[in-house]
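If your schedule permits, I should be very grateful for your opinion on a structural question. Please examine both parts with care and let me know of anything in them that strikes you as inconsistent. The record follows directly beneath this note:
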Amino acid sequence: DFLVVGGGPAGMQASIEAGQRGADIIIIDDKDRLGGQLLKQTHTFFSDVKYAAGKRGFKLGEQMIAELSELPNVKVLTETSAVGYYPKEDVMLMKRPGNATLKVRAKKYLVSTGAYEKTLVFENNDIPGVYGAGGVQTLLNVFGVKPGNRGILLGTGNVALMVAYHLIQAGIEVAGVYAPSFSRVRGYFVHAAKIQRFGVPIVTRHTIVKALGKNEVKGAVITRLNPDYSPAEGSQFTVDCDFICIGVGLNPAYDLVQLFNPKMVNNGTLGGMVPIRDKTFRFAPNAYIAGDCGSIEEATTAMLEGGLAGLYVTEALGRGDEGVTAKIEEYTHALEEDRGSPFSTRLKAAIEEITVENIEEVLN
């Protein structure tokens, strides 16, 4: 009935909602376990207590995996990558361990493949010791591996700030957090305050020019920026460090989405290239989208979108009832509340811009 590509919070919640209502489901993920971003999130979530607030990401992931394990109609395939979708044949091609291939034809598809990290262009940005913030999170919180002994972070969004705190918790020195943004720290004040209490400087209007070292990071050259974002002459200085962590945002992972021949738009507020979709999260006649691959937001938002997508698929499969309708209303209200902050005004407007009443009218 339903093939879910991506086993993060969105994909798992969609599978739970549709699976609890009897749909025959396969959920796949390219990692060795389900969970996605939740696996490496050790911080306590905010949002609605009913969904995620007060829970740590990895604990929430464990809870969702346990719920899925109780559904005999949901088949989980880990270490499985979706490498192609063929619209004429309506077939998803997947690669399994041992170079095995698998072809699946489903009535409905959900793409919940998340996002990948943006990076910065600077000299020597490819030497060992230059990481993405998510990579450092994975090393620390999933595998218990130190990325180095003294590092810097680039970016002041929530991910960069939280990774800085995770590093401090692991006993690793954070020499500073630098970002090219001019006006303010982009992440939540609570995250910035936690690392500042440990004496870590957060410096806006600065960026990296060069990573020092040949086969490993030996330091970083930082510069102050002029109002036009050009390097300020004579402002460069060196920071001693053995790793550099880049946390400047995410791009929606839209590779698989494009194979369904949707109408794509570039929306900077939502993270980059995303498909037009309707109010049921459909972006193609038989395909739905949820989570960061549709708009870069928080894990709780991904869960709510995934739950809604799973419920709308349930209706489309002819399994809807009053309970499904009530659950859709509940999730919709929770999603509106989750995006109720004044900081979400531009985000909500951007989502409205790419949401239509009927996806067929756009595609035709």
